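Let us practice reading a record.
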Amino acid sequence: MLLQRLFTILLLPVAFVFAAYDKPLFDEYETKLLSVEKNIAIIEDSPSIMTGSSGIVIYSFENEESFIMSRAIVASKNGTKAVLELLPFDNLAQNNFPRLSVTPKAGDIVKLNYLYGRSLIVVPNYESFKKITDFFIDMEWIHPDVTAAFLAKRYIPNPDRKRFREMCSVNMAGLITFNMDDLGYFVDCISFKVVKAFKIPVISEHTIVPFYSRISDNVKTSPIVLGNKEITNYSEYYKRLLGLK
């Protein structure tokens, strides 16, 4: 099947959505870098590691203080080793403070599935919102009113990957949960890769753009901003954004 060829994901049975899932869906995974060459690092593989998941690399001082040196995205894994792509971490950038000239090296700690306990949610209607949030009760959901307000203030009716990453950053979320048709997708905020998928029955055909919120009617384009067209087909737009088409 196409999804199975594109992503290494877990497809949850349809029956799972009828009873609450009260355990953490993703556990933060910590390990050490085995080697680093430029922006590529190697770690030991584990069943807890998912291709496309992201995390952070930690530098520790002798006084037990630490700071985040870089991001890490799982680029591939083979059962023995996993390859990480290292990227700058700029969530906490502060230009008034000096930057420490340290880079990741072998022995440094990497934490994957970073902030995976918090997720934005993009669904077509209230019924889907209610079903998903009632099922995954251990997930801390960023209410879609919050993200819709972010878009409305900036006159962005068609959020792209850049805007979703901004919304993840300001809300300290590691995931975005999308629902199109009868499938849901947990998507990493940084890599924008699907790390897990699940089935959900279609309860309502009603669709709200850019996604369900109580203030979606306020998410409009500005007459002075060119190219910010409103979404005409909810499912088609987000499937394309995730690379599913």
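A brief commentary: Residues 29-112 form a domain with the Elongation Factor Tu (Ef-tu); domain 3 fold (CATH 2.40.30.20).
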